[in-house]
Amino acid sequence: xxxxxxxxxxxxxxxxxxxxxxxxxxxxxxxxxxxxxxxxxxxxxxxxxxxxxxxxxxxxxxxxxxxxxxxxxxxxxxxxxxxxxxxxxxxxxxxxxxxxxxxxxxxxxxxxxxxxxxxxxxxxxxxxxxxxxxxxxxxxxxxxxxxxxxxxxxxxxxxxxxxxxxxxxxxxxxxxxxxxxxxxxxxxxxxxxxxxxxxxxxxxxxxxxxxxxxxxxxxxxxxxxxxxxxxxxxxxxxxxxxxxxxxxxxxxxxxxxx
Amino acid sequence: xxxxxxxxxxxxxxxxxxxxxxxxxxxxxxxxxxxxxxxxxxxxxxxxxxxxxxxxxxxxxxxxxxxxxxxxxxxxxxxxxxxxxxxxxxxxxxxxxxxxxxxxxxxxxxxxxxxxxxxxxxxxxxxxxxxxxxxxxxxxxxxxxxxxxxxxxxxxxxxxxxxxxxxxxxxxxxxxxxxxxxxxxxxxxxxxxxxxxxxxxxxxxxxxxxxxxxxxxxxxxxxxxxxxxxxxxxxxxxxxxxxxxxxxxxxxxxxxxx
Amino acid sequence: xxxxxxxxxxxxxxxxxxxxxxxxxxxxxxxxxxxxxxxxxxxxxxxxxxxxxxxxxxxxxxxxxxxxxxxxxxxxxxxxxxxxxxxxxxxxxxxxxxxxxxxxxxxxxxxxxxxxxxxxxxxxxxxxxxxxxxxxxxxxxxxxxxxxxxxxxxxxxxxxxxxxxxxxxxxxxxxxxxxxxxxxxxxxxxxxxxxxxxxxxxxxxxxxxxxxxxxxxxxxxxxxxxxxxxxxxxxxxxxxxxxxxxxxxxxxxxxxxx
Amino acid sequence: xxxxxxxxxxxxxxxxxxxxxxxxxxxxxxxxxxxxxxxxxxxxxxxxxxxxxxxxxxxxxxxxxxxxxxxxxxxxxxxxxxxxxxxxxxxxxxxxxxxxxxxxxxxxxxxxxxxxxxxxxxxxxxxxxxxxxxxxxxxxxxxxxxxxxxxxxxxxxxxxxxxxxxxxxxxxxxxxxxxxxxxxxxxxxxxxxxxxxxxxxxxxxxxxxxxxxxxxxxxxxxxxxxxxxxxxxxxxxxxxxxxxxxxxxxxxxxxxxx
Lengths: 258, 258, 258, 258
Fold this sequence. Notes:
Rossmann fold, 7 helices
């Protein structure tokens, strides 16, 4: 069964900026979905911030295996309840791939527990991504490095937790470096941050970027759902696996929950 | 200069439950502070949820090196703005030690990016904490294992991110295990979760628990403040370290921030 | 294409100890291969220490995707050259699953860089393995915990490096705990240590243990070979990606290599 | 009590190459020790490969808290027994800082469990080290980045295990990046790899490099010795913490050890 992937696009600059519209006439989300569709194992749908419930209804999330998130201009406009909903799906096992300026999205900051800051420069300079972890599934089939002739620079420190694994590190023409491919697990959900993708450059028309995204979807996919991660159940004393006798002081009630 | 440590107590059960009051007549926070004060390198103050701004004013946080957090009954009653304030101090370098039922506190869940769920049983059963990382600073001077004759059980899965290091794992009489000492870094702040400490048992009168807490304060202490982690500055093109020429499309404005 | 899996058995106790022979009349390796063969995606072969080159010739390793290693009585009898050969295949991408007393095998200690010590007791006591990472591929389809009524006890500290992820933690009847499922990557090779499997108990006839092993083979499999990890090539100055001019002092020769 | 630090120098190029001798007339080890001695908390001694037992006798190791290792030309000439001896001291708690070409030393490869390969170029190009983990003790007091105008290039992939934490990442003029400050724990011993230090450049006369090394010594120091990590003791059944009765089959003997 193919991996049901939902590409979420903020879809603002495509409608307000001629440069962006010129590069992505159908929206950045459509270009990303095109890259994914080259993998017969992936079925890619798109949605945008402007749709009801930002396009991520409970029902749509329930049939999404991997969510891809690109946002930049209006992170603050994403409803907190929707962010909480997405987080719960990730904890229960949905994969999440956060792209470029999505580092400042509410969902990414919520899952990291950090501000996810960095320093930046929009100069169309050269970025070269080095594979530092060639055996990682996300690096499958890639060359030792690949270049994007025009990209926005992101510089360290990138205030995110130490990742499970670092897959890519970027070299920038202006003198900076950046850890540009990082993996995490949050609950049962796999999370991948991938740096490139500034809206004024044709990054999502790049074949190698496409390979990375397809690899990431396959890596992030989890065939199981783990709703139990959202609960904190009591185990009654008389149901203890090894027989025990209740002792000591006790509170009358003991509330737990998500 | 000693490590300025602030012990935050929820301070509810001490005033509403006779068992808890009997064990901690001056409050759990006072007992914890007593344990810390046995280290000449630590100066421990206490505060409680009932004080103005829950006792964690900007001014008090600014002169706190390490914050210890015990809460249980009213996590929801902690103001979101205070939680955000504490998080910013952690990101900038303040140490944070979260105790027992604090796993469900807003500040811990915010820093973890996960629900921090588990399963539990209040039966006063035996807990045995094994040191799995004897070279870790938090295990300094400890025996191979230590026991708490009466404790609440917490069982896995504990839905937190994979830690930097696991220091303790607990054995429970009723048949469960739990990763009961976990380290994290969030921004420049060191975070330690330590499991024991149910309010109806005398855990914070235990000498070995005291040693763990003193070790944890010394480990979590960071002498430097890193306010810059809270910002996402632009690096102008003409200030690039290596000379570059601006190229490609550009957005007019590009907002960043915490 | 199925995953070509080679089960390596030390095959000594099966021939010298009646208890072991009674449980594993065709050898432990055969029982393990039987468990693997329940997965249509796995083709399992076996070999033993007594075969020429301990059964792991260059040729056989070259067509092995995942190697499973069980040894106990004669770790020292395994030829160092064979250990080096296996390590090279792991670094280039072969998966390796080390079982039980294999923690003291030369290959495991070599890949860990630590003594991999622990404390132990052979009393046929109950072991209960808890899944602490339910979203991990190795935990797929498993219950929250599973029991082995008779097992050897291994106790912490287990002197191995902090793993990428901890999948299982064991509870023992006699009062100990153990991190019993740990993942690592070494070069391009995935490594999984799985604790159970003492030769005098029927552990490799257990259905849940079989599920863990099948999951582990699927997880450890890497479809790519990365021989380049075994080399340390020079990049000549005139082949630098960004044009540079040679400067400063220089050594005449500069040897590198594995 | 100050941290007793031993700087180990291979001390070959200083005696055979005029460029190296010109920069380090008393040897690289002496220059490194000079940098360390600026910290009143460190007492730095030096030794070289040419001394009896390569200068690392049992007795000298026993009174060493942190060992710093620089080697390049003759890794193969270091006696295996000495390497094993150093590894045991690290496992028991001695800190180890491996510099530059020491990535290919026997002791580093042994502790990593990987070939520690990379690609390289000797062109005296500019290296810029970025602090990616500003709250880490090894980054204390450092600027956001620092430069070495002439250094050898090391390029990724660096085949080492995923570190506990990445502290520095280097930018190279010729287009490469490298994870140039990595932390590990092996047994009770803290291990830090620091990239810069090619012998034909004055890297160990650089003030910021000195600050990094002093920070690293303070970080790596472990006041406790953990000889027990070198053993794998049996816990007799009648000494089990929780009373158990021996059951099931049993081997007659059960050898364990380092």
